[in-house]
User: Fold this.
Amino acid sequence: MTYTILKTDFSDGVAVVTLSRPAVLNALNNEFFVEFNDFLDDLEGRNDIKVLIITGEGKSFVAGADIAEMSGMNPAQALAYSNKGQETFLRLGKLDIPVIAAVNGYALGGGCELAMACDFRIAGKNARFGQPELNLGLIPGYAGTQRLSALTGMGNALHLILTTEMIGADDALRIGLVQKVVEPEMLMDEVRAMAKKIASNGSQAVKKAKEVIRKGYEMHFEDACKLEAETFSGLFDHASTREGMKAFLEKRKPNW
Ligand code: CO8
Assistant:
C-alpha cells in the first residue's frame, strides 16, 4: 500500500512505520488517522510481522495534533476528532503484537499520547516530552490525562499537564514514562535489536504476555491472576511451548 504521510518498512518480522510530515514536525492531522488506520488494517491481516515500531522523521517524533487544522473546529468536530484519535490509539494496545515507540525528538501533546499508547517507549537522549495543551487553552484529548496518570502516577500527570513543562529523556526515564534512553544516533539500531529479540521468542507466548498484562491491568487483581493462570496453562496446548522447554533441556535454541 502507498501512503503520503507514512513510510513503512518490513523486514525480519519487524514493521517500522515512520510518520513523515517534517515541515510541521510530524503533527497529526486527519489524513494521518486515515492512513494509520489503513496501515493497522493491513498489519492485522499479516502473520509474518511480530513487532511494530513507531517513529518520526527528522527532529520530532510528533509535535502534537495539527494546530492549524484543529483551530477551525467547532465542539462537535473536536469531539469526533478526539474520538477518532482515542479509538486509533486504543487499537495499538489491542494489536496482538508488541508496539514500541522509538522517540527520536519532540513527543508533545498528541505525540506524547501516541507514544504512551504504545506498549513501551525507548527514547533518544535528545527526546523531549510534554503535554502543552493548556498553553492553547485545551486539555489533552487522545487519552493523555488517563495514560499519563497510569504510566507515571497522578502527581506527575497533574504536574506535567498543569505546568505544560517539557521534560528531557532522563527525566522521562526517572518518572517511568520511558523504559530506556539511548544515544540518538543508535536509537533505531537499539530498538530494532530489541524488536528482533522479542520476535525471536515463541510468538504465541509473546502475544499472550501482552494480552494478559494489558487486560489484567483493567481487572481486579485476583481476576487478573486467574486470567494469567488460565492463559499460562492454555499455552501447554501449543507445540511451541513444548518446543521451548524441550530445547532448553536439550541445550539448543528452540525451533519455533
Ligand atoms: N501543529 C501544527 N504545526 C506545528 C506543530 C503542531 N502541533 N508543531 C510545530 N508546527 C510547525 C510550526 O508551526 C512551524 O511551521 P512554520 O515553519 O510554517 O512556521 C514548523 O512546525 C516548525 O516548528 P517551529 O518553528 O516552532 O520549531 P521549533 O524548533 O522552534 O519549536 C516546538 C519546536 C517547541 C515543538 C514548537 O513547534 C511547538 O511548540 N509546537 C507545538 C507543540 C504543541 O503545542 N503541541 C500540542 C498540540 S495540541 C494537541 O496535541 C492536542 C491533542 C489532542 C487533540 C484532540 C482532538 C481535538
Notes: Residues 203-249 form a domain with the Lyase 2-enoyl-coa Hydratase; Chain  A, domain 2 fold (CATH 1.10.12). The two ends are 30 Å apart (CA to CA). The chain has two domains: 6-199, 203-249. The chain has a mean pLDDT of 97.
